[in-house]
Amino acid sequence: MVGTQKCNFCGKTIEPGTGSAFVQTKDGSVLWFCSNKCKTAMLKRRMKPRDTKWSAAYEKGGKTQR
């Protein structure tokens, strides 16, 4: 039985059989993502979870607005 995983970007729990895993080539670590939205934000757009409002790691007031 496979346990639940946690999304590396938004922090949401991933049920067994859903989501996607990404293996990094430089060190072989596995990154789990709940959706393509999270995967694209982290890998292609290089966004940080603490600056993204829909993630659990969002810091309120962390970014200054001009």
Short description:
The protein is an alpha+beta fold.
- Helix-strand makeup class: alpha+beta
Major sheet details: 2 strands, antiparallel
Query: What is the rounded distance between the termini?
Result: 50 Å
Determine the strand fraction and express it as a percent band.
Answer: 15-25%
Describe what you observe in this structure.
- The longest helix is centred in the middle third of the chain and has 9 residues, at 36-44.
- The model has no long low-confidence stretch (mean pLDDT 90).
- The protein starts with a strand and ends in a 22-residue tail after the last helix.
- The chain has a single domain (5-51), classed as Ribosomal Protein L24e, Chain: T, CATH 2.30.170.20.
- It has one helix at residues 36-44, and strands spanning 5-6, 13-14, 20-23, 30-33.
- A hairpin with a 6-residue loop joins strand 3 and strand 4 (30-33).
- The protein has 66 residues and is α+β, with helices and mostly antiparallel strands.
- The strands form two sheets. Strands 1-2 form a two-stranded antiparallel sheet. A two-stranded antiparallel sheet has the order 3-4.
- The chain has one helix and four strands; from the N terminus they run E-E-E-E-H.
Topology overview:
Elements (H helix, E strand, L loop, with lengths): L4 E2 L6 E2 L5 E4 L6 E4 L2 H9 L22
Antiparallel strand pairs: 1-2, 3-4
Q: What descriptive keywords fit this protein?
A:
Ribosomal Protein L24e, Chain: T, alpha+beta, globular, 66 residues, two-stranded antiparallel sheet
